[in-house]
């Protein structure tokens, strides 16, 4: 099937006007690193980098990766390169709007000149839709998260779901963006319990509450990054039971092993209950009985 660069609808039923920019927003760190006229620059998803080298021409739907010296003439080229898939698979991804590229996380510190404009309960329809898509109970999200609005370098306003860590920084998420405002740290939630549950992310933590349909009488530690697992381990000596809910990937394996080795007989790897899924949230999303 032909995917035209012109505005309108292709033979696959995919709207092509500004489609490439939309795909880029799904796949890459958002907000864009730089915008100049009709050109939008992103950190390339094809490698780790600190200087954006991927240019999107939003008018002509063209993309060019200066780091590789290569580009494409359509959104289809972009998805095929990104997903390493066939034309048929790329078209199916576009039609279903199913994107699973793991974003590079961006850390926004004071050197980036960010400012928090306002915070309040989660009201934005797009953020609520994001939570619903991940099957997270809205009441639990309202209890532990906020809607946060911020600006970067005195530019336009952005917003996302904010989850506060122990140093006052915020993990920020929306459909397009994954990052941290301020200092990166773990988050501890204490309920005077001798049982503690450990999670990699706030979405897994809230998925656990959603599955339980309550907040169990437990303490909780959310790493916000597996690189911070040793900070969590420092807090575990006083617990008689430690439950580990990390991801089913290499980083999750390493973090889980560190916890198990450090706490001997008091810890258990709960991942056996969602071993066929990437993480607890994916298990929740695919669990048919959860509304």
TrEMBL record:
GO terms for molecular function: DNA binding; DNA-directed RNA polymerase activity; zinc ion binding. Residues 34-97 form the Zinc finger CHC2-type domain. Keywords: Metal-binding, Zinc, Zinc-finger. InterPro entries: DNA_primase_Znf_CHC2, DnaG_primase, Znf_CHC2. GO terms for cellular component: cytoplasm. GO terms for biological process: DNA replication, synthesis of primer. Pfam families: Toprim_2 (PF13155), Zn_ribbon_DnaG (PF01807). This is CHC2 zinc finger. It comes from Flavobacterium frigoris.
């Amino acid at each position: 099937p032909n995917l035209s660069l012109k505005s309108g609808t292709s033979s696959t039923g995919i709207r092509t006007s500004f489609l490439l920019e939309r795909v880029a927003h799904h796949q890459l760190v958002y907000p864009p690193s730089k915008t100049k006229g009709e050109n939008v620059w992103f950190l390339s998803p094809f490698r780790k980098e600190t200087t954006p080298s991927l240019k999107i021409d939003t008018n002509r739907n063209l993309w060019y990766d200066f780091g590789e010296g290569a580009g494409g003439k359509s959104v289809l080229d972009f998805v095929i390169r990104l997903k390493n898939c066939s034309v048929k698979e790329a078209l199916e991804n576009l039609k279903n709007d199913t994107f699973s590229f793991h974003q590079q996380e961006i850390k926004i510190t004071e050197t980036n000149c960010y400012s928090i404009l306002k915070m309040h309960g989660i009201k934005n329809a797009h953020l609520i839709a994001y939570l619903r898509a991940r099957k997270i109970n809205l009441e639990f999200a309202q209890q532990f998260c906020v809607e946060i609005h911020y600006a970067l370098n005195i530019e336009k306003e952005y917003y996302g779901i904010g989850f506060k860590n122990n140093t006052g920084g915020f993990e920020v998420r929306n459909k397009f963006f994954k990052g941290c405002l301020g200092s990166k740290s773990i988050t501890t939630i204490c309920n005077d319990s001798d049982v503690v549950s450990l999670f990699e992310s706030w979405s897994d933590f809230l998925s656990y509450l959603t599955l339980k349909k309550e907040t169990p009488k437990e303490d909780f530690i959310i790493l916000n990054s597996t690189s911070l697992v040793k900070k969590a381990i420092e807090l575990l000596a006083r617990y008689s039971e430690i439950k580990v809910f990390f991801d089913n990937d290499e980083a999750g394996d390493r973090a889980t092993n560190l916890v198990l080795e450090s706490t001997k007989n008091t810890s258990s790897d709960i991942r056996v209950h969602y071993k066929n899924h990437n993480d607890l949230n994916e298990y929740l999303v695919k669990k048919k009985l959860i509304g």
